[in-house]
């Protein structure tokens, strides 16, 4: 029995040694695209089908920036980290704000991002420039045109239980700060 155990242990050691000789420990460079491609498995996974195409990102930026230009706000750039944050948040299909570090607009029941962003902007008709400040009726609009915001990242998720798609946009730095509306939400030109 001792002889068999010794032979078995020696064989396992030999296999382990040959296996380790074939394993490279050299660092591997991974691009951001490759990281996102592999986030389709495991805990906290981002479903690949929910990530936005370059065309959707362009529509989101173009729509935001068209409205921002009307109000003297600089154009936004795409923020992949904010998009990832939003995508992670909406995976549970709960239509509520995350309370995260970004400014955030949510929409549901729209056919696409453009119509959702249009609806957020259309709150402009209710905004009172003579009494600038936050209102539940205009908070989406003010975040869209907030002059101090520099970037946006968005995501969407179809939720079978409610049969709708949730749209989320996260803004950095966030807007809608009391006392800062006059310099960040300017009248249309």
TrEMBL record:
UniProt cross-references to InterPro entries, sorted A to Z: Allrgn_V5/Tpx1_CS, CAP_dom, CAP_sf, CRISP-related
Keyword Ligase recorded: no
UniProt name for this protein: SCP domain-containing protein
PANTHER family: CYSTEINE-RICH SECRETORY PROTEIN-RELATED
One Pfam family here: CAP
Gene3D superfamilies named among the record's database cross-references: CAP
Residue span(s) of domain SCP: 55-179
Superkingdom in the source lineage: Eukaryota
Signal sequence annotation: 1-21
A GO cellular component annotation in the UniProt record: extracellular region
Alphabetized UniProt keyword annotations: Signal
């Amino acid at each position: 029995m001792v002889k068999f155990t010794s032979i078995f242990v020696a064989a396992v050691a030999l296999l382990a040694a040959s296996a380790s000789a074939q394993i490279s420990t050299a660092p591997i460079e991974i691009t951001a695209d490759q990281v996102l491609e592999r986030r389709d498995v495991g805990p906290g996974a981002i479903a690949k089908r929910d990530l936005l195409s370059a065309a959707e990102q362009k529509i989101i930026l173009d729509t935001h920036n068209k409205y921002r230009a009307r109000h003297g706000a600089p154009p936004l750039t795409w923020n992949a980290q904010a998009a990832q944050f939003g995508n992670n948040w909406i995976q549970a299909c709960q239509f509520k704000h995350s309370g995260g570090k970004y400014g955030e607009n949510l929409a549901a029941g729209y056919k696409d991002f453009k119509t959702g962003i249009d609806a957020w902007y259309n709150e402009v008709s209710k905004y009172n420039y003579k009494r600038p400040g936050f209102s539940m009726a205009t908070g989406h609009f003010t975040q869209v045109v907030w002059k101090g915001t520099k970037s946006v990242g968005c995501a969407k998720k179809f939720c079978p239980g409610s049969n709708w798609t949730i749209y989320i946009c996260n803004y950095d730095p966030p807007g809608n700060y009391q006392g800062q509306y006059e310099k960040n939400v300017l009248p249309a030109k």
